Amino acid sequence: MAKSRNRTKSKGPSASVRASRESASPVSEAPVPEAPVSEAAVSEAPVPEAPVPEAPASQAPDDPKEQRPTPSSERSAPPNGRKLTVRVLRQDGPGLRETRRWENFEVALRSAMTVADVLREIEDHPVNQRGNWVAPVAWDSWCLDETCGACTLLVNGRVQMACGTSVSDVVRGRSALVLEPLSKFPVVRDLVVDRSSYGESLRRMGIWSVGEPNSGSTSDVNDRLDLGRCTHCGACLEACPEYGDQSDYVGAAVVNQARLAQLSSGSPARRTALTEAMMTPGGISDCGKAQVCAEVCPANVPLVDSLQRVARSTTKRMLFNWLLG
Amino acid sequence: MVEMCTERGRVRRVLVVGAGVSGLATTVALAELGVPVLLMSPKAARYHRSSRPRDGLAAATGWNSTGFLESADSAEKHFEDAVICGGYGMSQPPLRSLVEAAPQIVERLHGMGVPLQGASGGGLQRRLGLGASLPRVLSLGLDSGRQIADVLDGAVRSWECTGVTDSSGAWVPGERMVQRLEGWVLQRLVQDDAGVVVGVVAQESRSLTQKAWPADAVCLATGAPLAVRARELGSTAALGMAMEAGAIATQLEWAHHCPLAVETARGLRPLGDGLLAHKARLFVAREPEAAGRGATRERERDYAFDREFRGGSPFPSPDRLARAIRAREGGGEAVFLDLSLVPSGALESLLPRGGLGRGRKEVRVVPLVAASQGGLWVDWEAGGNGFLLPESPRNHATSLPGLYAVGGAAAQYHGRAELSGNGLVASIFGAALAARGMAAHRSALARSAFDLPGSVFERAESRERAITERLLSAAEEKIREPGEARVGPLAWVNEFRSVVSEVFSATNGSDQRQEGTAGSGVDPNVARWRSRLEELRQRVSQGAGFVATPALNGSLQAVRELGQSFLVAEAMLCALGARRSLARKSETGASLRTVLVSGTPASSGGAPGQAPPAVREVTEVTYPCVGKAVTCSSALDTRWLAPPPGSRG
Hints:
Chain A has about 325 residues and is α+β, with helices and mostly antiparallel strands. Chain A has helices at about 15-25, 115-125, 165-170, 195-205, 220-225, 235-240, 250-265, 270-280, 290-295, 305-325, and strands at about 80-90, 100-110, 150-155, 160, 175-180, 185-190, 190-195.
């Protein structure tokens, strides 16, 4: 059983930022009051003469700020001479386990390259390291802006979004970039997996909101905005030790959607129904509190908070049901 | 009263293609009207282009808790801002009806669970946006589009769990009001002998199965065509398919510009206009080489845009701002956004996820082209007072009977440029109208698509299967050819998109002046673009080399979609030329027209030896709607606000 660990990664806007968001009243006709902010002091005066400190060393070594971005072609940055070896775990079709194999590619490295850029390079020139013309590596993508959640995969063993991962952050020196499909979902082809079990869980548990939400308080709306940041990428399901073939657990993403639907529903009957849905097999009781979900969430959704609140409300409901026979 | 089922128990559905905000909203509206829906999307549910950064919802009037109008804004002002922002390039009755309905749309979404922040003193928090003279954008941050789509997706889910009852009131076993087809890619419209759209042929992207789906009406909610930043050409191909079948397109010559995009550690990302509303200011760096890292010194900054746009009220429209920034870039200068006055809470919700690096207080911005503002021409019908008749079957009907279009796929409300926040509202407003139109069309059908002889659909299916066969065998041959350049068809898609992007960047608002070609009527650039596209089309028609796979073939899909997209690109170039002629003739403020284009049938298809697509301008549309012939001219209805003489044509 995993011990609960202290998490330092933020699971949402920090309390001070949330406070400043509440107190700053963005643009109405009244002049905007200068809200106290938690970061560097802001004043009406023009930028002071002293230059802003340089970007920290953890930034990508090839600083994209040096590039002049051209409007028409985002991928026009010139190659910087280095070659990247990319190892991809491929499979030709659903259920075709015998076609599982590693295939290597070589890609000319450019600065500010993401894993998505690498995969697009391979698509443009689908030739493997041996010089054979192959089917381009299949991968799911849609927005390429880190907002839709389609391109989740395993990069060097960790679950990431392809468009949200800089190559320079995960590859050092001459090591290879290793790409695998998510392991908790059936493979369709190469890096594309079938995540329809997520949608099935949402349907089966009746997760949608009904009735106008009662509370419009700022913090409630902020909570819903935070929970609503989920892009349905499945990273939390991939990382969760409880989620998988060995259990019916629906996963943090589904629990989070249930909580969001509860907060967005005005109908008390619906809110109760959602709590009861979370008490069915595969619901919140299967959560092992490892909290890895919050660590890997690319959208910083406050998952641990959602899980804890749902757990408390199901406990209360269970007692209520028990007391009333 | 429509018989819900055929004799053999098949439910008579209508089809919605596309599951972003527009498609989801149309589906919900149809289900609420009692019309069963087939919702088709090329990807799994919840992955769609509506996730792209969107600015929010624009709505003018609202009531605060004490029952008073909460601001000096009004539907009239909202309307005026939108008309001016769009360069008077739209018919005014649909836009006017849209802005009047906007507050109810916001109320409805709020009631469905969309989280909208309240303002102190009651009402909802609003901010300024590009093109607006008063704050009226209700924003959820950069992922406004996705949060709204998710709420609509939840509503669709509830209908997916609701059964269908037949006319006797009995449940139809195993059927639900909404059935989703995820991973199905649209390939062709199916029409009966009279040209009425009776269904589609689509391909399941995983198993590569092709199947014809009958439908009593089809709605394209496939998104704005000629999308430059997408990996796939589905929205462009959908427009191409419709034009091939005879539908008329309009406003393709105008582009949706994102004037502000920033370089993050993970590449170029578009910014919405929210930061401008939160006191970010644009400046031109006099010595751009010295800028870039760290802060630009005060004396090297020229807050030129404050002057150019008269202190910022109204905020400039997105295409004007994009043009101003491009003009500076063209002169060797660089434009930056000064973020030092923006509160950190706003920064957090309005900066893209790539981040800009800690403590950055200024960032270089460049304009990006998103897609075309145009799309399928759709009809509208207004009453005597000029407002749309909500029950009319003409609203959002394309010129193909049985085919409707909503959202980015249709061109109706925005003209030259979309007022900040109007896009999402227009998708939902259009969805409600289209749903009613489709329901009316379905009720009035002499014969349902589901009662047509099976041969209609079998023929369509076989035709598409034959095309797939041909493409696969050509692909195999190409691979074996010696000396074949090792470039896959997906690279050709990039080439296509880069030509489109170049066209839109170069023509950003410049069509009222023929630079350097006065009187000649032919722009040498257009000839160059045309020849690049023709060269690409030749290459595609000679066959693309790629490997066949038992599942998921992105190359096959790319070749098909590319083949259907050349017609749209040619239509865009034709529209550009027509717009230029119109602009030349409009010096005296003659009544404005929209440019309507039609493709001659069978002008695309991508088979070798076929002639290049031919497109011509038309000045009126005649089409049958619910049994009556309707004629509309290309003249715009500008009954409330007349364009000033010499304004942008």
